[in-house]
């Protein structure tokens, strides 16, 4: 499995997408404001996603 890098767009948990801001040993920190419907979903701006739980959409 390839780990995401800073600036990659990833998809996780039923279609949520975000831009990777920081890569940690076991996870990435993702900015969710990338999604057009971000405000409608009432989510926090950032979240942590384990490397096992995402796929890279745009490198």
Automatic annotation (TrEMBL):
Pfam families per the UniProt record, alphabetical: DUF2187
Lineage: superkingdom: Bacteria
InterPro entries membership: DUF2187 (IPR018690)
Protein name: DUF2187 domain-containing protein
Gene source species: Rossellomorea vietnamensis
């Amino acid at each position: 499995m390839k780990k995401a890098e800073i600036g990659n767009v990833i998809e996780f948990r039923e279609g949520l997408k975000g831009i990777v801001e920081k890569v940690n040993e076991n996870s990435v920190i993702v900015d969710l404001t990338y999604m057009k419907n971000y405000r409608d979903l009432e989510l926090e701006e950032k979240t942590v996603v384990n490397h096992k739980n995402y796929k890279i959409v745009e490198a």
